[in-house]
Amino acid sequence: MFELHPQLDKDCLVLGDFPLCKLLLSNDSHYPWFILVPRREQITEVFELDEQDQLQLHRESLHLSRVLHDVFRADKLNVAALGNMVSQLHVHHIVRYREDAAWPAPVWGKFSATAYEPAEVLKLLEPLRLRLAEGFKFAELIL
Prior knowledge:
single chain; alpha+beta; HIT family, subunit A; six-stranded antiparallel β-sheet
């Protein structure tokens, strides 16, 4: 049975589910930072997914990337599956701006996370509710 890695569970808010992936929001208000986690057991690399799941992950990542780029008017969108600290396969989608706190450096380890206020999360998600509606089921947020 799929279980979200405890570190992801601790550091993120669960937003909902695509057909394959759970969508998380990193609880760091420095950046709009979203994470896709395929709901498959003991998978650490994309190639470990079967071919259908690889294609579905790619579709979901591309869809999320387009939505984030359009909604947040990103200067750059960083998409990466590192897994150095958390081995469970997860794909970061980080909206970057030339004036963000870490630009142009990577965001990892640059600053301590600053948690979102509940009202900030709701405002952040408002435009996504319309754009992610097809094939995406929002979770009931616990803020």
